[in-house]
Amino acid sequence: MKISKSVPVVLLAVWLILIGVMQLANITLPLGEVIQGALAIITGVLILLRPISLSRSIGVILLAVWLLLTGLLAVTNLTFPARELIMALLAMSAGVTLLIAR
Predict the structure, then answer these.
(1) CA distances (Å), 51 to each of 9, 46, 67, in order?
(2) Of 5, 28, 75, 97, which cross-links 37 as Cys (Cβ 3.0–4.6 Å)?
(3) Rounded to whole angstroms, how far apart are CA atoms 45 and 39?
(4) CA trace torsion 46, 8, 55, 57 (10° rounding)
(5) Within 10 Å of residue 7's Cβ, how many Cβ atoms?
(6) For every one of its 102 residues, what pLDDT tens digit does the chain have, with 9 covering 90 and above?
(7) What is the pTM of this model?
């Protein structure tokens, strides 16, 4: 299955805007966390399904894993020790790796 490069990027942008607006405006929707979680999971899967260049693969994979975990944590009661620390380190690793690859 070939995924256009723009589809995961557009979904990621929508997810980021949605989260930013909801937090800044202090908006809560009845299924807001579920919607955000589902969008994060879909985006992470689509990122992993598209071809990734070798120079950016580690950062993109870390980003996809972070999105998948963020989505799963939002839609389930999944907990594990040091969850916040692990998620923060994963996010920072993805960001730094993506910046270095540029």
Answers:
(1) 13, 10, 17
(2) 75
(3) 10
(4) -30
(5) 15
(6) 555 667 877 888 887 888 888 888 888 888 878 888 888 888 888 888 877 665 558 888 888 899 999 899 888 888 889 888 998 999 998 888 888 876
(7) 0.76
